[in-house]
Specification:
Order of helices and strands: HEEEEHHHHEEEHEEHHHHHHHH
Strand content: 5-15%
Distance between the termini: 112 Å
Shape: elongated
Largest sheet: 5 strands, mixed
Number of strands: 9
Helix content: 40-55%
Radius of gyration: 38 Å
Length: about 500
């Protein structure tokens, strides 16, 4: 029923004392009702704001617990129990600039003392062809040149050899010239065996240059400064550059490659040590960048072989024929996330995540065992191919549960997304010779990681290049089963084709 409307201009005579409201003023009652209504609206708004703040507090507490657990997991991985990281000393704003490396300006060079005895004397006849300009019109000369050179023969003392050179006068050079004897390094007072062993000690055994100096002084009575060992390493790296580029060309034609990278330090700043190799070749490269441009520069734009990598996305820039993602990295990632979730104060909301991660780790561990069966001949290649669809269905069933943790969701997306790893999980079952893990790269980088921890990386671009070149040459020599010290000796004394032939010579 519709209530009647008051006439226009009607003014109730009882609005200040209404008889229906026990004499209460209608205006006062209406204003009081409005005030109560406004207060209730304010209370409702405050309650909504309070609920929103409580939800935000809950979310922040959850994120805090996750970050705390992540920090504890990282700390346990990097430090032993009961150990804490040292607190760095505060930087002094008024501290002067550090002293420039090297000797002070005007410092006289250090020269090796002359040996007290000569063990061998080698007579070097005068050359018939000028070693500088290849001139053949040489005339006899009465001048002689004597060079004293110390070297070792793996005995408790160095063997000193004096090379007495007969000379011939070169009209083109307008000076007497002399030839170089086998095993002699021109203008060097330290022989090639010493240099080869010094490079081997630093590059293969990861001894710092000062310890190389101490070892020679203690075992052989051979004294030199650490810069001598450094110079031998730089010289060997420079001589091995053609072999290094040849290794790069061989990699670009390889059928299967393992790729990986690890952190490095270059003059105290962040850099990266890249590795590319297989069962026959090792190739290392140090660069300040971790982008796809580095790996593309190594392998080129037309590489068409197979690759095995971890989940780093830059390797997708390589136009490989077939790809395999390292399953060991996935297993390790799942276990790390489980360890992190178990450190959260209240892990109850993540029970489904933990169950999923444990199942994923067990699943890929079983998948890796298929590779052992295939290599032992218990699983044929044809049978292995037929297992791939079944394994994909099992993986999709495992990933169908409800998950809430960010890292778990990211791992599931990585396993199911075709743009990430979904197409690269079971390639090893269809490609001959391809492993399910990138263990090859991990093992190849292990010694270099130890070198980084000992030396804190490289101090200059030249040192970084020499390290990468020599690590590549010596690593390839080990895979080719070639003796390292004779190879380094030939690197100092022979031409590049001779060293290359020795590096890739057929072995029994």
């Amino acid at each position: 029923m519709k209530l009647p409307q008051a006439p226009s201009g009607f003014d109730c005579p009882y609005q200040r004392a209404c008889p229906h409201m026990d004499g209460i003023s209608a205006l006062w009652a209406f204003s009081t009702f409005q005030e109560q209504w406004r207060m209730q609206e304010t209370v409702r708004k405050l309650e909504d704001d309070n609920d929103q703040l409580l939800a935000e507090i809950h979310q922040l507490r959850t994120e805090r617990d996750q970050i705390k657990a992540q920090f504890q997991a990282l700390h346990r991985k990097q430090f032993k129990a009961g150990k804490t990281a040292p607190v760095p000393a505060p930087l002094d704003a008024d501290k002067k600039e550090p002293k420039k490396r090297g000797p002070p300006t005007g410092h006289p060079p250090w020269r090796r003392p002359a040996p007290q005895q000569v063990d061998h004397t080698v007579h070097v006849p005068a050359p018939t062809v000028c070693p500088h300009c290849a001139c053949t019109s040489l005339s006899p000369s009465q001048e002689t040149v004597t060079q004293i050179q110390e070297d070792i023969v793996i005995l408790p003392r160095p063997v000193v050899t004096a090379y007495h050179h007969d000379t011939a006068f070169c009209p083109d050079c307008n000076r007497p010239v002399h030839a170089t004897a086998p095993g002699e390094l021109r203008n060097c007072t330290i022989g090639p065996t010493t240099k080869a062993v010094a490079v081997w000690l630093h590059q293969q055994l990861k001894l710092p240059f000062r310890q190389v100096r101490e070892l020679f002084a203690s075992l052989f009575g051979m004294s030199f400064v650490p810069a001598t060992a450094l110079n031998a390493t730089l010289t060997a790296g420079n001589k091995a550059l053609p072999l290094y580029e040849d290794l790069r060309d061989k990699l670009r034609a390889a059928a299967l490659l393992h790729l990986d990278e690890t952190s490095w330090r270059l003059d105290g700043l962040p850099a990266w040590l890249w590795y590319v190799g297989n069962a026959d070749l090792d190739f290392f490269h140090i660069d300040r960048s971790r982008s796809s441009a580095v790996i593309t520069a190594i392998l080129g734009d037309d590489f068409n072989g197979d690759i095995v990598t971890d989940g780093y996305i830059v390797y997708d820039a390589i136009l490989a024929r077939w790809r395999q993602t390292c399953l060991a990295h996935i297993i390790r990632t799942a276990k790390d996330i489980v360890a992190e979730l178990n450190l959260i104060e209240d892990p109850t909301p993540y029970q489904h995540d933990v169950a999923f991660l444990e199942t994923i780790a067990n699943f890929f561990s079983e998948v890796c065992k298929l590779d052992h069966q295939r290599r032992s001949g218990r699983l044929s290649r044809k049978k292995a191919r037929t297992l791939v669809p079944t394994l994909r269905r099992r993986l999709h069933a495992i990933c169908s549960g409800r998950l809430v943790h960010t890292k778990t969701l990211n791992l599931r997306d990585r396993l199911l997304s075709a743009k990430r790893d979904a197409k690269k999980l079971f390639t090893f079952l269809t490609r001959p010779g391809m492993p399910p893990t990138n263990n090859h790269s991990e093992r190849a980088l292990r010694a270099e990681v130890i070198a980084r921890k000992i030396s804190f990386g490289s101090r200059s671009p030249a040192g970084a290049l020499a390290f990468a070149v020599l690590a590549s040459i010596l690593g390839t020599a080990r895979r080719q089963r070639r003796p390292l010290i004779p190879l380094l000796y030939s690197l100092f004394t022979e031409e590049t084709p001779t060293v290359q032939a020795a590096l890739f010579a057929n072995t029994a």
